[in-house]
Amino acid sequence: MEDKTMGNVWWKEPMRVLQYNLQVRDTPGMDAEKIARETEEMAANVVVMNVGGIYAWYRSKVKYHHVNEFLPEGRDLLQEWIDAFHKRNIKFVARFDFSITDDTTYQQKPQWFARHKDKSPYYRGEKRMGNWSLFLNTCATGGYRNEEVGVPVIKEVLENYDIDGIFFNAPFASACFCERCQEKYLQKYGKEMPDNPDDFESDWLSYCTKENIGVIYKAIKDVRPEVPMILYYCPFTSKTKAFGRFDRDNIYDRYATADLICTESQNVLSNGINEIPETIHPVLSMKAGQTEDGELLPFGIIHSCPGMDWRHVGLPENEYLPWMCQVPAANGTIWHSVTGYNDTITDKRIIHTITAVDKMIVKCEQDMHGAKSKADVLLLWNGSKAGKNWADILMKEHIQFDLMHDYRINKERLMTYKAVIIPEGFPVKDGLDKVLAAYVSAGGSLLAERCEPDEITQLADFFGVEKNVQKGEYLYASYMRFEGKGAPIKEGMDTDKAAFRGEVNYCIPFRETEVLMTLVPPFAPMEVVGAPPERASIPTPVTDIPLAMLHSYGSGKVLLIPFNYHMLAASFHLKDHYRMAYNMIKLLSGEDMLLKTNMPSGIQTTLYEKDNQILVHLVNETGQRPLMDTIPVYSLSCSIAIPEKKHVMAVRSVIGEENVSYKESAGRVEILLDKLEVWDMLSIDLK
Ligand SMILES: [Zn+2]
What is the model's pLDDT at position 1? Predict the structure, then answer.
């Protein structure tokens, strides 16, 4: 058998994916030719359409596979689609969803369905108006999702249709208390399944998903090994109303039963302005979905709507555009998800916006093909709030960074970064202490945000403090004071102090440890901070309580921050806290940072390299979210380090095609870009 998983397979080339989430009632109006032509006009080269699971969009012979009753008589719609797309060189990915099915099947095969603790099934959308059958959640370990329906359906489609890929919607196992799941849980962990899904072992649901998808994956590879399977991965732990708890995934667990992975960065605005997703969500999801070798790129699925309750209208264009652009700018593959197809999409702005983004991607995708991230800083990553907030600080300060997953600590890879950040709560275990010590000994720099006494005493010698650490109460009305040696942290800030709140771990530094910042304790209780000013003097303007300590260790340095710095930045968005973080990283990583710029914090920058090219993406997120306007930025300047012995041949504005001027000097190139609208990529061509 020819092994097509090696070498130049289609899914290792640049892709622009468009998923039509079809409604069965629209089936009769579908014209395959027209849909394929419009897909091509939108500059997509991969299409994803409903094929099996909830509804079969072909005449399936598998029992209990519900055939779409709106399929036209005497025609094979699925075949028509595939032919029409293939004629235009558009790959066809078949979407399957075995997570729910009909009440008629439930009555015949109740053992296939997921159960609450009280054994009742999970109904899905039982209050939906209209003449619909009732859906119920299936169990990931049951026959429907495995050998009885899932496997034969997959085989039936692969044997009869020339599909190019398989995508699983809603593949995750949801909490299930059926006898079979309880038995499996007991076998795996040697204890009874807890009553509350929140108390499940942290890898249980992931394990159930892996087992189930493994069965499907094998079925695919048995029939047509060249067909890639695309599976969701979950970059953050979260909870949803429909499916319950989602645990953050290990991407390597997902790759064990998949060829490609995808994630959603749904821009849910319908939860209200206090609940809108982090601005950096897509870029962070893409960074968290990269493998160590950077060989396979994650898909970033972006829904066209401002929340599923408003799935029939589009996201505001000025918000939608840069949100989508973050995916390719973070080296992910765009995957547009729309409700219906062009004839039924009545908000035509969705079509215009997707087309605009795809055409921008076309301009830069060949340059980006095979490019690798280039970064100064490595952020240790376990999907925590602290990690996200540090990522936000780094993005706003244009500091180039990569993530290293807690489940894949790699000393050799870590050694290649100028500075490493270990955020609050990131556990030092399984030999990480030795890895960090070796890294710093060899000249690396570590920024350690440690917020519990145990976290500090665990590595006291490394941090350069006594083992005696005590945590104080939450302080208001207090400040961080820059000491003489802390001057680099206040660079660009003409002040002696910055705002502070929080709990301090009181440390006693070794004599050789440099104290860069100290605490100015509360000048007044919170209730009288405003009045009277006559008594607003600071009673103790100077203490020796350290808030930042720099310790030399081997050839390198450790900067210990003994309080929750990331929350200070995230809670108040004061520029000082971002600026100080930048200065701390600069202090650690040296003057020669890859990218230096005074661009506004709302512009996201990401940097990549190839043999004779440096590529810099600029995505304009300037303005208050959700963005009501596109605010162009003019005269953007930046300075980029160029590799030794290389020289600049040209600098191009690849997407925006704006004017660029540049000057090379002392191993760097100074670039001036006239204008940035939404997204641009600068290519620095080297010789
Ligand atoms: Zn079950």
Answer: 37
